[in-house]
Amino acid sequence: VPTESFEGTYPVDILEDDPEGHQEATLAYHASLGEGAQTSSEVFSLSSGEQVKLETSSICFCSLHRDEPHHKILVLVNPQDTKTVVAVYLKESWWSTEDVLRTSDPTREGLVKVQSFGERIVLFVLNVIIFGRLERSLDDDDMFFLPHSVKERAKILWRNGAAVGFYTTNVKGSLCGDGTGACYLLPVLDTVFVRRKHRRQGLGTAMLQDFCETFREDDALGLSCPISPAMYQVCRQFLLAHPEERGRLWEVEALGARGQRVNIWLKVQQQARLAEGEAVHPGNSKEDLSNLEQTSLGDRPTEFADGDGHRYGNELENLKNGQDCAENEKEVGLP
To answer: Where is the signal peptide, in residue numbers (predicted)?
Structure first.
């Protein structure tokens, strides 16, 4: 399906802040497709030249937010690999996932706070489609991913006209979301992701610095436990360059109370000493390392992206729980 009418622009630039209107248009299109009003010859062309037929067996509704399942977006999957989303239906057209992540607005550069409906869709695509399936470790098939909350505080990292990463935070005093009514006791950096081809370029460190600067008035800042080895390297590099932040950053469990946090700089130093001990006495430090590990409280197992990524998965439910797959709830393989 061509998008010539929007040539030079992308969904994030032209979508109105009207989730309900988008929902109605999407449902109408899906209904017409199921009724056969859309001809079976209609196809979407991939960048590889392959063409995917637009038919109900290859399209799927996905919940945009984990806490508002009635807000959905329509995605097209590759029939040859039903775990791969190739396009998203927006503004009465199908857009490739890469085009959904692009912008023609030159003011979108660097870290930009997520505010508009279009930016929420970009966050969803980065989190659920790009990280959740395309760029995660191949040996993590038992992990599934949920969309962020509708009120999740997030910043998208824009670079040269494309969204290449994001991070999300839980602010001090916000509900922790476990149904108890308890609130976070300090700002917490919850999720971080940088696309593979943009890693090893200091972007993770830049996001960590932005997090620290955003909450400059707070004496203590948290990173959700557990922290991946890659993210520990980001923390190490950042704290080496910014020693004034060493007393502020904590690895936190649950709400981040005093007994639920460990100073990150201290832990970095401990791990360095253990690594030195392993080099001197091979095989003796594995037990010591286990004593430093933190057990994540709550209901969210964790999984981390490589490089500058730090990201959480969820095994409680997959996208199917917030998703109507084509007609008759047909499973098309998208988790």
So the answer is: none
